[in-house]
Structures are given as C-alpha cells and as structure tokens.
C-alpha cells in the first residue's frame, strides 16, 4: 500500500483565517514532506521532517507552520495567507529521506481570497 | 544551483507510437532518478525510478540513465491517449532534497 491521504481536498480561506492541512501515511515511512505547486510549475519543496524532526525549511514564510505530531501525521498550519499562496499543496512521504522514492498524496487545492 | 532540465513540449505522438521524454541534470553527484506522471489537477504519480546506468523496463515504460552524459530518459511504448499528461523528471543529489524538472507535456492523439 503506497497511500498518502490529505484533507481537505479543497480549501477556500480569507487572508485573516487560520486553517490547517492534514496528511497521513501508514506505510511506516520516516520522512514526510510538504510541497507547494503552482499551475504549470513543478512542485517546490517547503519542509521536510525526518523521524518527526524538522530537517529542512526552504525559507518558507512564517505564515506557514508545519507540525509533525507523530511518524504518521503531518500538518501544515496556515495563518494570514496572501492570495499568491493559492496553490496545490502536496504532502509526500518516503521510507527514509536520503534518495528514497517519494509517494505523493492527492493534494489540497487552496484558494486564498 | 542544481538544475533539472526538460523540454516543456507539448510532445505530440500518435496512438501506438513510442513517446520519448528526455531530461538532463547538472549535479554530477546525483544518485537517484525518478519519473512521475501528473494529470491536470492531480498529484504526481510515480512511474519509474532508476539508480544505475543502463535501461530499466516496467511494462510499456523504459527508463534509461547515462550518468556520464548526465541524461535520463523515459520511453513509453504503444502510447495510449490515457498517457496524455505532464511527465516530471526528478533527481536526488543526496540528502533530503529531490529536484523536479518543469515537466514535459505529452499528448497522445487517438
């Protein structure tokens, strides 16, 4: 089973709202990732967690706050977003983080008004 | 700056033909290479991965890697309209990061 789940599938929020994106995997993977993808662009890495510790923050603005409550769950807390943050947010996981195949969830389509 | 380059396309092939997708990468130390398929509005789906020089076949798909030329390709035999999608080449140069190319749009004409 190579399933990564994400909720919600779609999210519309105002610039003053606080919302969270959720990601879950039950493959025993120890690395989890958040990517942002704009239309007709490749996924851009935002954060990497390895063994529940934040390993990479790609200079993401603080209005995005990741959290890894346990090895199966990954959250992305959103606050005071801008319209340009509208994108497809993808979660991925891999067995380890070093050169392993990443499996993507279906994504959350976010629209910031 | 580590880069992965792909022709954006669109690459148009007739049904039943071979589609050839190409990718070059800049980091000579890269070790792992991936091809993902992405349908419009969907998330990337892993098609193939390859670590060693040469060819790797899986059904209608063949990945080819040439580390000396820093080149990786994906061949799709007997192309079907359902293969129409954007194909992302991804390269891991070690550690946590996988670098994605901008993708090649493939259109298979029925």
By DSSP, the count of extended strands of chain A is 11
Instruction: Give the radius of gyration of chain B.
Output: 13 Å
* Overall spatial form of chain A: globular
What's the helical proportion of residues of chain A? under 10%
Topology order of chain A in helix (H) and strand (E) letters: EEEEEEEEEEE
Oligomer: heterodimer
- Based on helices, strands and strand pairing, what is the structural class of chain A? mainly beta
Number of strands of chain B: 11
Listing every helix as H and every strand as E from the N terminus to the C terminus, the arrangement of chain B reads EEEEEEEEEEE
How would you sum up the global shape of chain B? globular
Count of helical segments of chain A?
0
Extract low-pLDDT stretches of chain B: none
Instruction: Please tell me the overall pLDDT of chain B.
Output: 94
Distance between the ends of chain A: 37 Å
Provide a descriptive summary of the structure in words.
- The complex is a heterodimer of chains A (113) and B (110).
- Helices cover 0% and strands 57% of the residues of chain A.
- Chain A is built from no helices and 11 strands.
- In chain A, the strands form 2 sheets. In chain A, strands 2, 4, 5, 6, 9, 10 and 11 form a 7-stranded mixed β-sheet that branches. A 4-stranded antiparallel β-sheet of chain A has the order 1-3-8-7, with no helix packed on it.
- With 110 residues, chain B is mostly beta strands.
- Chain B has strands at 4-6, 11-14, 19-25, 32-38, 45-50, 54-58, 61-66, 71-76, 85-92, 98-100, 104-109.
- In chain B, strands 2, 4, 5, 9, 10 and 11 form a 6-stranded mixed β-sheet that branches. A 5-stranded antiparallel β-sheet of chain B has the order 1-3-8-7-6, with no helix packed on it.
- In chain B, β4 (32-38) and β5 (45-50) form a beta hairpin.
- Chain B starts with a strand and ends with a strand.
- Chain A binds chain B through residues 2, 31, 41-43, 45, 48, 50, 55-56, 88, 90, 97-107, 109, and chain B through 31-32, 34, 36, 41-46, 49, 88, 92, 94-98, 100-103.
